[in-house]
Amino acid sequence: MMELADWEWSELRFDYYKTDCNIRYSYAPDQGWSPMQISTDETLPVPLAAACLHYGSSLFEGLKAFRGADGRVRIFRLEETVKRLQASAERLCMPVPTREMIIEACTEVVRRNLRHLPPYGTGAAMYLRPVEIGTSTSFGVKPSDEALFVVFCSPVGPYFKGGIRPIQVAIDREQDRVAAHGTGDVKIGANYAASLLPYRHARALGCASVLFLDPKEHKYLDECVAANFFAIRDGKYITPKSQTILPSITNKTLRQVALDMGLEVEERLIPVEELSTFEECGCCGTGAIIAPIGKIIDMQTGQEYHYTDSVGPVSYKLYQHLLDIQYGVEEDRHSWNTIVEL
Fold it and tell me: Which CATH code, of 3.40.50.720, 3.20.10.10, 3.30.70.20, 3.30.1490.190, is assigned to 167-326?
């Protein structure tokens, strides 16, 4: 059995820590995708004129691997990650990694860095970050027909040290995360770059995230910086539906968990005024699973929406149920986990 790395597992933050190796594939039009390469290099060979540096030809994903209560190693929602990564590559007109490549890279990076996979019971996991960048060189704006696909990993601590707790979120009516018919529904770096200035403004108010409104009419709730929004009311799990929102794999999973728990699920337009009617609300994503929202501040109008100083009962039940599936404590009835054969 491989000896574990010398980490203080309970002290890990949700941050990047160097591991032993990463997995790489390169693409050239006349050769296709290269065989899998194992690298210990922490840097990438990127030409000065590469498309990723000048024209935003880059995409990424995020998912986690867990050492379960039964000792087995699981990667959560790998198949959904494959589909979303491929959709992002297609949207950016980049070479599309095959399903087999993505699965091979994610499972192999876990196997080769197994000593960095946190033990069960520490509250920690292994975060996987697939990245694709366009490496074609040109001063003209055009799709990149050369690419580098990399998967690396890091042990990460729980998103909330000391347990899940509510955050404050700010509404920004003056800035848009994406254009109305832009790239909001794919996971690319440009979407996050556009959120950095509003995020700085929100942080100045003591808020942990920004809740954007729809970019067309600015009437409806849209996306948080790096997470989907959801709310609980009258036995319903309610979440925005829009072509400018990233289809969160965590949100999709929570919708099914909500149904399994007997809740109704609504995906629809949510007017900003409806915030005052919710019993619970939160952000959801890979890092935190659920970040409950205790207060929302409208930066332009000054209106505040107050919820709770502790985690709402429905949000906590959703959170714990999903966490138990990831760690193999509860039955994986929907086959969401990919078992890594060691």
Answer: 3.20.10.10
State both tokens at 100: 């087999």
Which are the catalytic amino acids?
Answer: 187
Q: What is the pLDDT of residues 29-44, one digit of tens each?
A: 999 999 999 999 999 9
Whose CA is closest to 135, among 192, 53, 30?
53
Cα–Cα dist 79/229, whole Å: 23
CA 88 to chain centre: 14
* pTM exceeding 0.90: yes
Q: Burial level of 170, CB count in 10 A (0-12/13-18/19+)?
A: buried
What does the H/E/C string look like for 112-180?
A: HCHHHCCCCCCCCEEEEEEEEEECCECCCCCCCCCEEEEEEEEEECCCCCCCCCCEEEEEECCCCCCCC
